[in-house]
Inverse folding.
């Protein structure tokens, strides 16, 4: 199915896509993993927007029996102790780390007033599933034992998948998260319909990209019914934390937002999803140059802030 993106995407967003492609070409998945990471890291540096005034960031690590999980702790000038945010970065489980989403986390911290902890989980193909999930759970357990304030989960793309997986696996925990904000996440929806079909060849992320990420994440093993791999495969959606999902219209993953929202609601939970008109996967990097992305990031900040205070923003 061919979608006319010239009608959906405005000039600002088109410029963002072209700028991204100049550093991270659409055929990057054909390169070696090392090359992909170099290309991605260079692109992220080009979009780095700096830190808001008064922000501090401290690198640390969570020690596990087998390895250390690097983290970066962001603190605002005047902390709001209502909640803390555990952030999982995107990058297809292959790319990214503390640097790739450094300014996003810094701005999220400054604008909400909450401490934000960015988690540098292990990447594939060196560490196939469930390594990243295990690190995400390890980070949650660390946060639960380190912070007295409620925990809020947040993540974009692959990180949104990890945040949701943690939410599903911590129900019944004494420190279960009070909310989750998922930004254009991949949650394991039906790839035969919806945005997976209409936006299969979207700018910034295609179905070909998704299939590559899917295969490399598992090392070829079939874990399609593993909830820690794809949260949508969970037969039980009860008792999940308040959930806000923000997706991009021009993104094969967009339908996952509505599908996940509907499952949470059907099980009696609170969930809201919003599809951002004319935006593409990865638009967090466009929040300073594209008005639509700027407005969306404000909605994300507002959702995190409200859920952190135990309030429902919608």
């Amino acid at each position: 199915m061919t979608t006319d993106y010239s009608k959906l995407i405005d000039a600002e967003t088109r410029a963002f896509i072209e700028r991204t492609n100049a550093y991270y070409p659409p055929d990057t998945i054909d390169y070696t993993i090392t090359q992909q990471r170099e290309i991605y890291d260079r692109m992220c540096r080009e979009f780095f927007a700096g830190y808001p005034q008064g922000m501090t960031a401290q690198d640390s690590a969570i020690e596990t029996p087998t390895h250390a999980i690097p983290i970066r702790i962001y603190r605002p000038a005047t902390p709001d102790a209502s909640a803390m945010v555990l952030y999982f970065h995107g990058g297809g489980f292959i790319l990214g780390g503390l640097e790739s989403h450094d300014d996003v986390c810094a701005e999220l911290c400054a604008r909400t007033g909450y401490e934000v902890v960015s988690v540098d989980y292990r990447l594939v193909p060196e560490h196939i599933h469930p390594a990243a999930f295990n690190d995400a759970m390890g980070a949650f357990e660390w946060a639960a034992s380190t912070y007295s304030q409620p925990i809020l989960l947040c993540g974009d793309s692959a990180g949104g998948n990890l945040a949701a997986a943690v939410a599903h696996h911590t129900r019944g925990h004494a420190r279960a998260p009070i909310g989750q904000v998922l930004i254009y996440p991949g949650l394991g929806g039906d790839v035969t319909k919806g945005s997976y079909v209409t936006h299969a060849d979207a700018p910034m992320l295609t179905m070909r990209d998704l299939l590559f990420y899917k295969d490399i994440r598992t090392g070829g093993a079939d874990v399609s019914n593993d909830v820690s791999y794809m949260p949508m495969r969970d037969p039980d959606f009860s008792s999940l934390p308040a959930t806000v999902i923000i997706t991009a219209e021009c993104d094969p993953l967009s339908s996952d937002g509505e599908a996940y929202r509907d499952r949470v609601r059907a099980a009696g939970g609170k969930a809201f999803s919003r599809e951002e008109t004319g935006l593409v996967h990865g638009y967090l990097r466009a929040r300073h140059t594209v008005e639509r992305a700027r407005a969306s990031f404000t909605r994300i900040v507002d959702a995190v802030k409200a859920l952190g205070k135990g309030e429902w923003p919608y």
